[in-house]
Design brief:
Blueprint: H1 8-18, H2 20-30, H3 34-46, E1 53-57, H4 63-67, E2 75-80, H5 83-95, E3 102-106, E4 119-125, H6 134-144, E5 145-156, H7 164-184, H8 189-199, H9 204-212, E6 216-223, E7 228-235
Parallel strand pairs: 1-2, 1-4, 2-3, 4-5
Antiparallel strand pairs: 5-7, 6-7
Length: about 240
């Protein structure tokens, strides 16, 4: 599924709303549960900065926001453009009785409704590749970070080593879209996934973009043979 540039944001919103009820199951099933380990690794890296106020951008159903509680923060706010995903995230928070710490709301990554210098950390899991304007979204996250605040981004990558690269490509292009379509009933979401990963700037190219919008001390940490990556950076003035 190719998203037209002029209305990518609207199409992404509609697509994720359409799979919202099956989203969590599909994430864990199609990754064989590895996504849990990736999130734990991401939170462990974030712990080095000891953030007390955290913004989870493209929060989806709130998995990373909830995982961030291991950092013992004072407040975690999650934002996402897909209303149905947000409602599921809110339900999770209520069921776990976490309303005093976690707040999930509808929000646009490119127009964050927060003041400058508000958060100690800005985090994203599997969401930056869906930004309509990548640099604008990253710049907004930079704006709302406190001085010495940390950005942490967990995103899919493409492995380069043989035979992992070939197995990955076959799974992503054939098995994953088929299973995603059968389970979710959506014909577009899981064909869009491999395309969006293929078009996303990875490794040093993504670090260059982080540096361009102002982040310093940027790092790239490959995970599981390069299937996913963690990117970090600091706001230092």
């Amino acid at each position: 599924m190719a998203l037209k540039k002029e209305n990518k944001k609207q199409q992404v919103r509609a697509m994720f709303n359409s799979v919202a009820r099956r989203y969590d199951f599909l994430n864990h099933f199609l990754s064989a549960g590895i996504d849990y380990r990736w999130r734990r690794k991401a939170i462990k890296i974030l712990a080095k900065n000891n953030p007390k106020t955290i913004l989870d951008v493209a929060t989806g159903t709130g998995d990373l926001a909830i995982a961030a509680l291991k950092l013992n923060p004072k407040k975690v706010i999650g934002v996402d453009i897909a209303e149905d995903m947000v409602e599921i995230g809110k339900k999770k928070v209520r069921e776990k009785k976490l309303e005093k710490i976690i707040h999930i709301q509808v929000g646009d990554s490119e127009d964050l409704q927060f003041n400058d210098n508000t958060f100690d950390a800005a985090i994203v899991a599997f969401g930056v590749r869906n930004f309509d304007n990548l640099e604008k979204g990253l710049s907004e996250m930079y704006r709302v970070l406190n001085n010495n605040g940390m950005v942490m981004i967990l995103e899919f990558s493409k492995p380069t080593a043989t035979p992992v690269r070939q197995l990955y490509q076959f799974y992503f292009k054939n098995i994953l879209p088929f299973l995603g379509r059968i389970i979710s009933g959506d014909n577009s979401a899981y064909t869009y996934l491999p395309k969006s990963v293929g078009e996303f700037p990875m490794g040093n190219e993504f670090l260059r973009i982080l540096n361009k919008v102002g982040y310093t001390d940027t790092q790239h940490i490959p995970l599981t043979f390069g299937i996913a990556s963690i990117y970090t950076g600091k706001k230092l003035k």
